[in-house]
């Protein structure tokens, strides 16, 4: 798919300029958030070791610093129907306009076992928000069959659009640009129309990136790296992974594939990720 096309520098620059920074509720989150550019859009994950209120607390703090925040809500961490009401109430009080819904890796704490079941309860309450993001898996999922992933993606799209909200899909981490492109082509043909925010790991130390990949169960991508040693050597530069190895080839077909944004998994390495982003934008604009 990529052999005869050159990267689209203009689109690549636009994607980087509008990049969303994903941060994790870890001890260093506030120290690393200081490296964000002013008025950034940041996505705050929902840690199984914490609560949804912890995620919203961070959103409140970062909103006070002038950032646009997108809280992640993990369905399995929602404790009750009343909890849904309190989540929506707090979203309204914080002025949050965009949220991101996933099933989550935590043990089920309430009535919701997956993202569609929580989405149904959420949109039934008609929250005053604009956009709902959902996860998607070009590389599959360690514990969920592909057929179930496909069915859930259609179901989530129907729930969001049927309730009158805007939506988008964010791809989970995958190191294979060709695989992502092929997967996007397939779901477009099948009827998934939601715009895609390309999930791209930030400029993270290689050892840290691979350790996190294994811990998150991203088995297919890890096997891809092991089986394709030449590609792995190009993909993983000394010291740090280069996000451009994914972003550059996929920018060639961004319009056809419906890629409209970049969701950057910073793993709280905002300093090195932002340094990389600024350098690439400068190079693309010269």
Structural account:
With 286 residues, this protein is an alpha/beta fold. It has helices at residues 9-17, 29-33, 52-64, 81-94, 115-124, 146-162, 177-190, 206-215, 219-227, 229-235, 244-251, 254-257, 270-285, and strands at 20-23, 41-44, 68-74, 98-102, 131-136, 166-171, 196-201, 259-265. It has an 8-stranded parallel beta barrel with strand order 1-2-3-4-5-6-7-8, surrounded by 5 helices. Helix 4 (81-94) links the parallel strand 3 and strand 4. The protein is globular and about 55 Å long. The two termini are 27 Å apart.
Order of helices and strands: HEHEHEHEHEHEHEHHHHHEH
> What is the strand tally?
8
Report strand %: 15-25%
The 3D shape can be described as globular
- Spatial strand arrangement across the major sheet: 1-2-3-4-5-6-7-8
Instruction: Compute the average pLDDT.
Output: 88
Taking Cα atoms only, what radius of gyration do you get, to the nearest Å? 18 Å
CA(first)-CA(last) distance: 27 Å
The percent of residues in helical segments reads 40-55%
- Helical region count? 13
Query: Largest sheet, if any?
Result: 8 strands, parallel, barrel
Q: What class would the helix/strand composition place it in?
A: alpha/beta
Unreliable stretches, pLDDT < 50, 5 or more residues? Answer: 216-221, 227-238
């Amino acid at each position: 798919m990529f052999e005869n096309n050159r990267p689209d520098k203009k689109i690549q620059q636009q994607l980087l300029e509008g990049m969303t920074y994903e941060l994790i509720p870890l001890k260093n989150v506030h120290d690393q958030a200081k490296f964000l550019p002013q008025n950034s859009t940041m996505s705050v994950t929902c840690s199984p070791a914490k609560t949804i209120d912890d995620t919203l607390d961070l959103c409140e703090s970062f909103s006070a610093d002038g950032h646009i925040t997108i809280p992640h809500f993990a369905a399995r961490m929602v404790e009750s129907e009343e909890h849904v009401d309190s989540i929506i109430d707090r979203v309204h009080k914080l002025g949050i306009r965009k949220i991101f819904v996933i099933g989550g890796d935590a043990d089920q704490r309430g009535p919701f076992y997956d993202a569609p079941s929580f989405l149904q309860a959420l949109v039934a309450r008609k929250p005053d928000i604009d956009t709902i993001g959902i996860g998607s898996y070009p590389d599959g999922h360690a514990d969920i069959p592909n057929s179930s992933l496909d069915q859930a993606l259609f179901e989530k799209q129907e729930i969001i659009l049927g309730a009158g909200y805007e939506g988008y899909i964010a791809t989970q981490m995958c190191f294979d640009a060709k695989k992502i492109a092929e997967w996007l082509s397939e779901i477009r043909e099948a009827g998934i129309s939601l715009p895609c925010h390309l999930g791209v790991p930030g400029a993270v130390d290689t050892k840290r990136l691979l350790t996190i990949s294994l811990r998150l169960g991203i088995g297919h991508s890890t096997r891809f790296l092991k089986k394709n040693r030449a590609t792995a050597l190009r993909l993983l530069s000394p010291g740090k992974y280069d996000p451009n190895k994914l972003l550059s080839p996929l920018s060639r077909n961004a319009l056809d594939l419906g890629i409209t944004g970049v969701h950057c998994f910073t793993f709280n390495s905002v300093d090195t990720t932002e340094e990389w982003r600024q350098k690439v934008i400068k190079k693309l604009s010269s």
